[in-house]
Each structure stands twice: as C-alpha cells, then as structure tokens.
Amino acid sequence: MRLRWLCPKLLPISTWVAFRMPLAMRYMYLPVAFSIALSLSSPAAAEVIASKSYSYFDIRGKTADELDRELGRRGPTASGSSARHPGATKIRFGGEATYIQDNGRCRVGNVKVTVHTQIILPRWNSRRGANKELSMIWDALSSDIKRHEERHAEIARDQARAMERAIRALPQQRSCEAMQELVSNESARGIEEHDRLQARFDRVEAVNFQKRMLRLLKNRINGRAGGK
Q: pTM value?
C-alpha cells in the first residue's frame, strides 16, 4: 500500500486537504494451532495466555515524498501479498484442551487458549533537521498507526477470551472423538469470527482516516499554541 501525503507543508486549518491513505492499514495473522489431550481424571480449568511484542523498521527522509517512498520500500507485507504497509500486526493463536470421560460421557476438562501479537511500526531515523511542520505531521500519523495496530492486538486478545469461554461451555458428548470434533469446529468458528472482526475494523478505519488525522493535527496545533 502506498501512503500518499498531499501537503508537504502544513496549511491553514480552513484550507486543509491534508493527506489520504487509500487503503486501510492491514494486519497479518497466522493459522491457529490447537492440540488435544485425553485426561481421565484431571479437574476442569481454563485460562487465556496473551503476549505482545514490538518490532520496528527504520525509515529516513527530510521531506514527505522521501518518507512516503521509504514506507513503500521498507514497510511490512501482509500474509499472501507483496504490498507494503505503514504498520502491521502479526497474530498467532494456539491452544490445548483436555477431555474428561466419566459415566459414558465426555466433556472438556482443561482449556488453554494462547494468542501472541507482534506489532510492527515505523521509526523515523533522520528527524533531526526536518522542518517542524513535517515533524508534527509525522507525530500525528505515527501515533495513529500505533493506535490502529494496538487495536488489532486488542481484538485478537478479546477473541481469544471468547474462544476459551465458548469451548469451555460446549455440551458433553457420548464419546471423546465427538467432543474433539466439536472443539475443533468451535475453534475454527472462533478464528473465522476473529477475521471478520479485524476486517470490519479496517473498513471503518479506512473510511474515517482523513477526519481522524485532521482532528489529530488540529489538537497538536492547539497544544503547541497553548504551550507558547
């Protein structure tokens, strides 16, 4: 994805056309891994383990066009696409479930759902000497990229908790083979719902991008004026 900045310098608020992002910032996710074990006597338990890490890609430039080219050349790619993006979130789900067989019935015992998110963000290495207007635009944009990717990670964590609750609530089955199939189907449904929620979030963000950036810039200008 190309990030286009249509104003290399800040215009008066009344004439702002600012810049546009033609496509939503994207997320990446990896397939769920869910292993199954059989337990005849262990008590039921459930947990969600969420972890998060950050990584950065460096960009250089003293103009909006130079930063644009750097983002298009160095930004992360989403799974299955060669397009570059200003930020991304890798999401990896995993999990374990044990079954308890008792009196001819099988139920879910222990459930553990894991989700790891890695947020990938840009880092501007040649800020020194750049003009104040470009620095302010970058600060607004980079903070919005981070907020956007943090929300992707939050959606993944929320869905991991929803998956754990749904699996734990599954009804008993006549056999553990049937129980295993039910767990597998529920975990697949949970991943599909996760993908739907992430795509919906991206669509909303794409529609509101310009208004959001104008508001962020206005707040930063007012904050700088107030500090004088």
A: 0.77
